[in-house]
Design a protein that fits this description.
Helix 4 (84-96) packs parallel to helix 11 (306-321), helix 7 runs parallel beside helix 8 and helix 12 runs parallel beside helix 14 (411-439). The protein is built from 14 helices and 15 strands. The chain has helices at 3-13, 49-52, 61-73, 84-96, 110-125, 142-147, 187-199, 225-235, 258-261, 288-291, 306-321, 324-345, 374-386, 411-439, and strands at 28-32, 35-38, 43-46, 103-107, 129-133, 164-167, 204-209, 239-243, 268-271, 282-286, 349-355, 358-363, 389-390, 392-394, 400-403. The protein is of the alpha/beta class. The strands form three sheets. A seven-stranded mixed beta sheet has the order 4-10-9-8-7-5-6, with helices on both faces. Bound molecules: pyridoxal-5'-phosphate (PLP). Pyridoxal-5'-phosphate binds at residues 109-111, 114, 137-139, 210, 214-215, 243, 245-246, 272. Pyridoxal-5'-phosphate is lined by residues 109-111, 114, 137-139, 210, 214-215, 243, 245-246, 272.
């Protein structure tokens, strides 16, 4: 098929709700490690990694060789028969998860992982109410959309699931309380208690949060935030669920899971995305006494599929063997310095945030008013694309550039990305100056 045919058939045969990046959509052809090629043969440095999913490089042969071998051996037999691939994965997960978390329920997506976690917390506690955070993204089922704290991602939800309330999120750049860190005393964390006291029965089943809010635009909390919240959640008898769909598997540097950066040991961890380097998998992990709470029958036909299980274990092993958590820390810090330098040079950048190889820049029309620059964000993406760099987007206002390259990129890749970003911002600057003088 030609590029035009693919785009035409995409419009004709797929749901229009599947939104595409770029005015002229990029039709992918093949990819290898940090690079991706479109059907016209243009090569891109991929700094979004299939939405925070390519952990160890596209089509990493150390992962794909294991997938290929497994496909030829046995591809599927369902969860009613044990298989070596899934138990080996679950054993590996038990070794790397914090605290006493040692049992897993494997599914196919982050949405399912979060559904499973909420159901489990409710059954285990015998309670119903759940506290989530504003600006969170939890997935696309009715329950996961109801946990989500973005109107943009909830529009197709006629009636939200009951028993979910949303506390303020730790968005320091746009503090929901109008305060400034550290003088604020992390007042947003204390809001979790006020929410429990005023909008629930005071007896919660769970609190769920992303250690760094992903779709929200890599909103990174102050270091004390989760410790304070954890204590509140425990005081009110809830289970603490860390949604590590974006922050897991070394993405934030040094540690396996983002929540470990905040020195909190959760009761339940959910994940997906980067866990299997692009093979569909979701997982809910917890302590045995919580896992034992599920009553009746449970099945996920494809959950724990041998092919996805070997892909996940191989991905985790590459991260371990190549010390990619350290690389994410070192190259991530180097990258962060480059982004901060761009901020010093270009007024469009209002904030730089994130951790490890999960870094974002928030665009504003004016640094004082912080008016979101959504159109400029799209323009920046187009300019980067022209120069062979792929970046992602996020944030409630669509004005945050999200970057999450593979964990095995080098400083030379960072130099290439920063150069393209700088050129793109420089190209945009005269047009921005004209448009702001017109609005004055
Ligand atoms: C933090 C978080 N949780 C859950 C999900 C849902 O995952 P999936 O799209 O695999 O269902 C996402 C997806 O972006 C996510 O970022």
């Amino acid at each position: 098929m030609t590029r035009e045919e693919i785009i035409k058939k995409h419009k004709q045969y797929l749901f229009p709700s599947i939104s595409l990046y770029y005015t002229d959509p990029l039709v992918t052809d093949h990819a290898s490690m940090q690079y991706l090629w479109d059907v016209d043969g243009k090569k891109y440095l991929d700094f979004f990694g299939g939405i925070v999913t390519i952990s160890v490089g596209h089509c990493n042969p150390r992962v794909t060789s294991k997938i290929k071998a497994q496909i030829d051996k046995i591809q599927h037999a369902s969860t009613v028969f044990p298989n070596e691939a899934v138990v080996a994965l679950a054993e590996k997960l038990a070794q790397i998860t914090p605290g006493e978390i040692s049992q897993s329920f494997v599914t196919n997506s982050g949405t399912e992982a979060n559904e499973t976690a909420i159901q489990l917390a409710r059954i285990h506690t015998g309670r119903y109410e759940v506290v989530a955070l504003r600006h969170a993204y939890s997935g696309r089922s009715a329950l996961a959309q109801s946990l989500t704290g973005h109107s943009t991602w909830r529009r197709s939800l006629p009636v939200p699931a009951q028993g979910i309330v949303h506390a303020l999120n730790p968005y320091c750049y746009r503090c929901p309380l109008g305060k400034t860190y550290p003088d604020c005393g992390v007042a947003c964390a204390k809001d979790v208690e006020a929410v429990i006291q005023t909008t629930t029965s005071g007896q919660i089943a769970a609190f769920i949060a992303e250690p760094i809010q992903g779709v929200g635009g890599f909103i990174t909390p102050p270091k004390e935030y989760f410790k304070i919240v954890f204590k509140i959640v425990k005081d009110y008898g809830g289970e603490f669920i860390a949604d590590e769909v974006q922050t897991g598997w070394g993405r934030t540097g040094k540690r396996w899971f983002g929540i470990e950066q905040w020195e909190v040991t959760p009761d339940i961890i959910t994940s997906a995305k980067g866990m299997a380097n692009g093979t569909p998998v979701g997982v809910t992990m917890t302590r045995p006494e919580i896992a034992a709470s599920f009553k009746g029958l449970q099945i996920s036909t494809f959950g724990g599929n041998p092919v996805t299980s070997v892909a996940a274990k191989a991905t985790i092993e590459v991260i371990e063997q190549d010390r990619l958590r350290d690389n994410a820390y070192d190259v991530g810090n180097y990258y962060r310095q480059g982004l901060e330098a761009l901020k010093d040079k270009h007024d469009l950048i209002g904030d730089v945030r994130g951790m490890g190889l999960m870094q974002a820049i928030e665009f504003v029309k004016d640094r004082t008013s912080k008016e979101p620059a959504a159109q400029e964000t799209n323009q920046f993406m187009e300019e980067c694309r022209k120069r062979g760099l792929l970046v992602g987007k996020g944030g409630l206002y669509g004005n945050v550039i999200r970057t999450s390259p593979p964990l095995n990129i080098s400083k030379a890749d960072v130099d290439d990305a920063i150069r393209v970003m700088d050129e793109s911002l420089t190209t945009m600057a005269p047009a921005l100056a004209v448009s702001s003088s017109r609005t004055r």
